[in-house]
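Retro notes, item 3 of 5
We never archived the inputs for the zinc ion complex last cycle. Fixing that now. Sequence and ligand:
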Amino acid sequence: MMLRQICLEGQSIDCQVKRSRRKTVGLSITHQGLQVNAPKEFSDIAIDELVQSKSDWILNKLAVWGNKTSLDPFGSQNDSAEYLLFGQVWKPKIDAIGRIQMVRDDTHATKQSEHRDLSESARKWIMNWYRQHAEKYFNARIAFYADELNIPKPSFKLSRARTRWGSCNNRGVIRLNWRLVQLPVHLIDYVIVHELCHLIEMNHSRNFWALVAGIYPNFRQAQGGLSRYCL
Ligand SMILES: [Zn+2]
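Structure as it came back at the time:
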């Protein structure tokens, strides 16, 4: 992997170039920016030319990502060191002997220096805080909606996938991304309903969406809401 800076219509863009034994060039945009997958013999100049020729598409895609809220709580984008839980802002308050407490942002004013450059143990503590809330809430809502759907409550696992909110397998185990716990509860509920309905309909057929709509009528709005976040 090689990192290049490319200037596109006056904007400097980070571009990761990965060369491999492939035959064609592929461009992709993720929360990390532009990535070019190219054949070994493809020159830097050829890559620059290709990127320039696709500048509209690239700038457009980057703008979409830029407007999304990142759900990586320790990512560089989180420079205000605010932590979302159920759509509300929390901040860590660390006392003189290093004990952490999470406080709602509007109830306590914390000093910038208190939550910048969190120690490894503080990060672990916050991750644990998230995990506990996730397990408790997901569990309760899975039970609630399984009941609505008249199916036995499935077991679930927290996942840390970077590509999906949730999934389920044919053994009936549901996986829910722990990062969901940062979202407003109605969005979390939609993902839970979606996965539970897959236990009945293992596809995205008309029947599946009818099932979803039956217990979560506003599912289209929820899909729009989810698309404003990136994992
Ligand atoms: Zn699905």
